[in-house]
Amino acid sequence: MNHESPFYICHFLRIKLQFRFNSEVHFIGMESNVYTDGEHSECSERTVQLKNPHLGNMDEDVLYHLALGSKSHDLEEMFGDVKFVCMGGTPSRMKTFAYHIMDVLDYKLPVGAVISEITNYRFSLYKVGPVLSISHGMGVPSIGILLHEIIKLLYHAKAKDPVIFRIGTSGGIGVESGTVVISDNAVDGLGNHFYEVAVLGKIVRRPATFNMELIEQLKSCVDPNDSYETVTGTTMCANDFYEGQGRLDGAICDHSENEKMEYLAQLRERGVVNIEMEATVFAALTHHTGIRAAIVCTTLIDRLQGDQVMVTKDQMEEWQRRPQKLVGEYIKRSLQKKL
Ligand code: R2B
Ligand code: URA
After folding, report:
1. Burial per residue of 90-114, b for 16 or more beta-carbon CB atoms within 10 angstroms, e otherwise
2. Ligand 1 lined by 135 (C-beta under 6 Å)
3. Which of 138, 179, 275 to mutate to test the pocket of ligand 2 (most atoms within 8 A of CB)?
């Protein structure tokens, strides 16, 4: 089916964005600096915890980059059923993923309908049943902002025990291009296992930790008939695509080819399988708020072979679908309680 066909154009799931600033938001069940909704914390399924004592004093929480608000929108009505949030770099990939999830969950759109963005102010957001699919842009600051707002969104929506995935692209080290990597560890460009942020002029460090049970569950969803490998390993999160990943092909470069190869070999020895640009903050913010989360990336290049990403459009599309297939399978089994 051509989802973009004019015959299917109708604004399925489109929600008009309105901001109102005059009703009240209540945060219930305040306990030290951890916030849970008392009504829901007794359920077997957990609601999201925020780690911010100030939010309870605010009338409205404006999720500015999502163009949503806790008073202007009925977030519980809109997102209370969310069980999975899937993030990826580009709007088009996340739209494709939304359609993939429709197939996986056997969702049928009414005749004449297409999936449409709920919001596309800074990030493109789609919802298919219990699955949110949202683009995160490039790099730690961009996904960091999105994570703050998505975690608050899940909190306001009273979502039960949601899982967050990043389905992304990366550069591999010593693995064939197109290999899928499930991150079991995240390090920054200095090899630190934490996410570092300057707060009030001081460095605050938060452990970049993944949920091992979730990783094992994902591994169990790997299709043994796949024509490519799916591996587990450490992901290095760089703050740059060029110099920060040791490339020789940026506009500026002060290191030699030998130095680059030595550095990549050292990374490989320490268990780094791939390099991307979001893993530390993703692991740290989800871990700090007690949300299960995982990163599944495809590799677009083996960095031991070169720096330039030279992939045909078809190849790129096929490789990008690989993490989507794995996460889609996880979602299906999870909803069928078959994990
Ligand atoms: C992978 O690809 C992007 C850079 O091209 C970046 O967002 C990442 O993590
Ligand atoms: N994304 C990255 O961050 N690095 C690569 O080499 C490829 C994709």
Report:
1. bbebbbbbbbbbbebbeeebeeeeb
2. no
3. 275
- What is the enclosing helix (H) or strand (E) of 265? helix 257-269
For ligand 1, say whether the CB of 84 is within 6 Å of any of its atoms: no
Cβ(177) – ligand 2 distance below 6 Å: no
Residue 89 Cβ contacting ligand 1 at under 6 Å: yes
Are 136 and 267 in contact by the 8 Å Cβ rule? The answer is no
Q: What is the pLDDT of residues 298-308, one digit of tens each?
A: 999 999 999 99
pLDDT value at position 320? 97
Domains of the chain: 1-161 (3.40.50.1580), 165-339 (3.40.50.1580)
Residue 258: is its pLDDT beyond 90?
yes
**3-class state of residue 17 by DSSP:** coil
Q: Measured from the CA of 277, which atom of ligand 1 is nearest?
A: 9
pLDDT, one tens digit per residue, over 66-82 is 999 999 999 999 999 99
For residue 312, pLDDT over 70 is answered with yes
Q: From CA 294, how far away is CA 123, in angstroms rounded?
A: 20
Global pTM reads 0.88
